[in-house]
Amino acid sequence: MEDKKEYGQGILFTVTNYIYWFLLTNIYFILMNSVFLFFFMTLQPSFSNILLYFLALIPSGPAIAAMCYSMEKLVRTKELSPTRDFFEGYKKNLKDTFSIWLPMLVICFILLVDFHYFRQSPSHISQIGSTILVVLLIMWAMVMLNVLVINARYKFRVRDLFRLSIYYGFTKVKQTTGNLLILFIVGVITASTTNFFILFTGSVIVFLIVLNMKAVFADIEDHFLVTPSKGKQSRA
Predict the structure, then answer these.
(1) Where does the sequence pass through the membrane (predicted)?
(2) Where in the chain are the domains?
(3) Residue-wise pLDDT tens for the chain (236 aa)?
């Protein structure tokens, strides 16, 4: 009877910790995205403002990297010090994040502008172009997720990071499908409720994505990292 009581208390303690970790990490994430939030709340949701949204999203890269860093540690160790880990991830990934975040944003910007251009015309060629761009946007979203999450755990050269992200996007079909499904569900809920849904549940969303990518981490460690036991230093 006593064992059952202790087990129940343990579950409650764990759940309470996770709620606290998610909540505090999400508060830091929102604070570090204050520039984007300002533009998001003051600008009309119009395509004509896409350049302003693009500029406002530039400082969001390190915040997303810090969130990925924190959630990856939580998945791996099942423990988290929200304040220390979030800002450690922010500081540690600041330079590297900009070198990958800016190119990813630019490509997204180009694809969205092209998509909007094709949508203006009802011609058959424009419809084909729109369909191709939707596929490219989905594929690019897949690559971006892999890049951000892998970069939160390991340090590779930028070109190797993108190669790995594309490679796992097509070889780990289960993980890729799972991530896209998470994004789809988040998109549906956001469209049905409020645009702030992603901001206020960001930590949970990233946690689920990182949890889904555990097999990718395991494969990277098995095939792409040099271990100390072989006489060389690991890159992780």
Answers:
(1) 20-44, 50-69, 100-118, 124-149, 180-211
(2) 2-225
(3) 444 444 445 788 889 999 999 999 999 999 998 888 888 788 777 788 888 888 889 889 999 999 999 999 999 999 999 999 999 999 888 877 888 999 999 999 999 998 888 888 778 888 888 899 999 999 999 999 999 999 988 889 999 999 999 999 999 999 999 999 999 999 899 888 887 788 788 999 999 999 999 999 999 999 888 654 444 333 44
Distant-in-sequence, close-in-space partners of 199: CB < 8 Å, separation ≥ 6: 26, 29, 30, 33, 37
Predicted model pTM: 0.85
Question: What HEC string does the chain produce?
Answer: CHHHHHHHHHHHHHHHHHHHHHHHHHHHHHHHCHHHHHHHHHCCCCHHHHHHHHHHHCCHHHHHHHHHHHHHHHHHHCCCCHHHHHHHHHHHCHHHHHHHHHHHHHHHHHHHHHHHHHHCCCCHHHHHHHHHHHHHHHHHHHHHHHHHHHHHHCCCCHHHHHHHHHHHHHHCHHHHHHHHHHHHHHHHHHHHCCCCHHHHCHHHHHHHHHHHCHHHHHHHHHHCCCCHHHCCCCCC
Place of tokens 């890159």: 235
